[in-house]
Amino acid sequence: MQFPHVPQQTQLPLFEAFLAQPLAPILKDVAERPWNVEPEAFSELSLRGAAGNCLNLLAPILRELSEDQDARWLTLIAPPASLTQTWLRDAGLNRERILLLQPRGTQSAQQLACEALRLGRSHTVVTWLNPLNSGSRQQLISAARTGDAQSLNIRLG
Description:
Blueprint: H1 14-20, H2 25-32, E1 42-47, H3 51-66, E2 73-77, H4 85-90, E3 98-101, H5 109-119, E4 122-127, H6 134-146, E5 150-156
Parallel strand pairs: 1-5, 2-3, 2-4, 4-5
Helix pairs in contact: 5-6
Pfam families: SulA
Organism: Pseudomonas kribbensis
InterPro entries: Cell_div_suppressor_SulA, P-loop_NTPase
């Protein structure tokens, strides 16, 4: 038994089919606007699990920040006790570009972070503030914008 020959329609690859369709006017307006390349002033990273595993996940992020082309410091405010000078060295971080700061007296880690951000001598200030309420987050954002810096809060759970 022979089946009648049915001509096959050519199928466009997925992206060609998408690109063949005209963009809706709204999408076209969005596509033509310049992208905002200015980085956010505040970022937060939440890591859960065993402390050693969390540090292993954190190592490449901190290593990249310690090698930043910006001549300013990577500042770590009140890091966890497990983040030692030995760990920094073993993780391959550039320790010559890192400041480890601890609050003194009645000063809180939040206050110290805001001061470090405002001064602008650090390209990134990393904190371990948990919990971090919206008011504290806004203070970090404001300080980061003043010092043209980045605030990164890490939550270890």
